[in-house]
Amino acid sequence: MAxxxxxxxxxxxxxxxxxxxxxxxxxxxxxxxDPRVVxxxxxxxPPEGVVTTVDELEASKRGRFAYFKTRDFYIVLVLGQxxxxxxxxxxxxxxLLVAQGTSIPAFQTFFNYVxxxxxxxxxxxxxxxxxxxxxxxxxxxxxxxxxxxxxVQGNYFTVLAYRYTTxxxxxxxxxxxxxxxxxxxxxxLRVRYHITQVAGILICxxxxxxLFASDHITGSSDSADPISKGNQVKGDLFALxxxxxxxxxxxxxxxxxxxxxxYEVVGQLAFWGMxxxxxQAGIFDKKSFQTATWNSKVGGYLTGYTLIxxxxxxxxxxxxxxxSAAFFNISLLTGNxxxxxxGVKVFHLHIHWMYPIAFVCIIGGLLVYFVGKKVLGExxxxxxGKNQEQGVAGVGTARxxxxxxxxxx
Length: 409
Fold this sequence. Notes:
By secondary structure, the chain is an all-alpha fold.
């Protein structure tokens, strides 16, 4: 349950409360402010036997491989591959739609925002009440407008780039998203990367380099149609802009979900994203919509695309809390491998012998990334204070562990 302290801030943990406290909570529910972590027992103190500081919690396990001994590490590793499979699956559905003669990149994403809006905004309204929700819009709405704008533009320009440039060129430029995340996090969020994290990122990029080499050898990355030099430059610029927007949106979302309830952030992303995306679809996809093929297969592909993309948007904030935007992006690098695996069944592709090597290389980089990390890994955010006191005690946050002990949810 979301509870509210004297500042009117929301938290995501459940807390047993007395009738008097319940009445006070309801009186304060209409106020909106920065989230504060309130006590769980209702007596002003943490539960008995629960670690109360980050240092004490991280001292429970020591050594260079301390994080590998926690269940969070395996959750993060598996979650990253689930997200990579989600991306690959949405790309597959997009290819199937194009094969049917339906190419509406902006419009097909619109349904995703609508679905997320129905689920998360409705739940936010239920938890906050309409008046508090409106106050939240007035106070923090501008942050979510920026986040949704970056997200929508990242989707749009990345898809647009593939119309003008080669797949290989666009994928190489997409690495700029990782560069953007690292630089922005370093400058604005005071994130400091350990040498093993930098090495892990470089190893992952090396693994993708093997994938590209395999594509070049087999000729699978070559464009079917000749691309003029002018269009190549235009496509590369679109890919660069899309990657930059993706990187920025990832960092902004990581910052917001560390301070606000997950349902609020995803709900607002969907609310404003639906408006941005709807406007762009009406402007740029109007002709494509009129000439598109509409049949039962197209309806099925759109449904699959929407459901999987909605799952991706729901799980990504957990990755930002448990790990970081940087790890999120390098986890998605295995997407090419999963894409070929799916393509074997769907498009009758063949797996080149270099693909498994590349996959192992990327997974190895993900492991190296966490060497030397303590028990909480990247869940401790430098912008939230020593004991994460400025953050929300939500699912996957370090603050929740400090308050409730060694727990994920």
